[in-house]
Amino acid sequence: MSIRIGYLLPTRERVMAGQPQTAPLLDLAERAERLGFDSVWAGDSLLARPRHEPLTLLAAVASFENELEGFGRDCSARMGFVIHALKVF
Predict the structure, then answer these.
(1) Residue 4's pLDDT is what?
(2) DSSP for 23-75, written as a single string
């Protein structure tokens, strides 16, 4: 079994820093592919808002990367999203 390392796009950090544009996130995904990361991830949370919507962002990454022959070739194995859930008592 080999170790695979992915890159989590900073979707919330960019928005909170007043930089909600999508293009820089697409550039980061492209850079991750060039650097040899195995996957790109986008996070989501029910409570930590605002942030980019992960499925739409990853669709844009797939479309963008498909042109570059990157992650978009195998979306199901190369991209994913994480949902942060908090149990409230």
Answers:
(1) 87
(2) HHHHHHHHHHHHHT-SEEEEEEESSS-S---HHHHHHHHHHHHHHTTSGGGGH
Residue 28 predicted with pLDDT over 90: yes
Q: With a cut of 80, say whether residue 48 has pLDDT above it.
A: no
* Three-class DSSP category at 20: coil
User: Can you tell me whether residue 6 is helix, strand or coil?
Assistant: strand
pLDDT above 50: residue 18: yes
Q: Where are the domains of the chain?
A: 6-84
Q: What's the chain's average pLDDT?
A: 79
Q: Is 5 exposed, middle or buried (0-12, 13-18, 19+ CB in 10 A)?
A: exposed
User: Cα(first)–Cα(last) distance of the chain, in Å?
Assistant: 39
